[in-house]
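ingest -> validate -> predict -> emit
validate: passed (alphabet ok, no gaps, 285 aa)
predict: started
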Amino acid sequence: MTLTRVSTPTDRIVYQGEPGSNSHLACQERYPEAEAVACPSFEDCFAAVESGDADLAMIPIDNSIAGRVADIHHFLPTSGLHIVGEHFLRIRFALLGVPGATVDGVKTVHSHVHALGQCREVIREHGFVPVIAGDTAGAAREVKEWGDPTQAAISPPLAAGIYGLDVLLEDIEDEDHNTTRFVVLSRDFVTAPSGNGPVVTTFVFNVRNLPAALYKALGGFATNGVNMTKLESYMVGGEFTATQFLAEVDGHPDDLPVTRALEELAFFTTEVKVLGVYPADQFRG
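emit:
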């Protein structure tokens, strides 16, 4: 398989959410010199890159506690964008209140449903009433706007500086392994070179509607010694018999074992589409 390698400047990167969110922080960590721009939805992120308004998009795809971000698995195959990198972000939450607020004075905490679920212990310990908000950083903005010391937000610490809030409690997440994996999306198919460090290949495929089709399709990866690190299934087109899979393997399509495995995969599938060939993040090590 021959892949085109091009370079793309990174001046503007978009993310879903409000300033101060974990996606915003991921952009700052990975591309500190780029302008990070907030978008209301994932669709808006994809559209910004497709239209050329942004060079890249930073999109969450998995969390070590909450699992996969389901919407992304549906958007990726038809988006026309390509994965050019990945970034793992250790998720940290803080309790944020208006200046002068105290932990004892807080009655209600606001945040995204996943963040509330990942900070159950501190909520239970202090008897806070949890209220679901659309976004972790958006909750911080609202708390600032309300100016009520009994209302607090569970948000990334970055949001405190952006919205002028006090950090009342730090590192309040229940699990210290809470990590989100982001993928970096580009219009251009920017591929990592073969033989220059660990590489991840992400692809989607549809299996033929035959007995043991998936077993046979994946057999080539086992026989060729290719490590598959991700396999997600989901229905497409509203058909219970039409199942699409998103998979990731260690290695480059130009590496002979991966080449052979992909050739065997194609024999038992109706379509194989490579979404990205990119350097593995150091976190994997």
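Confidence is low (pLDDT under 50) at residues 1-8.
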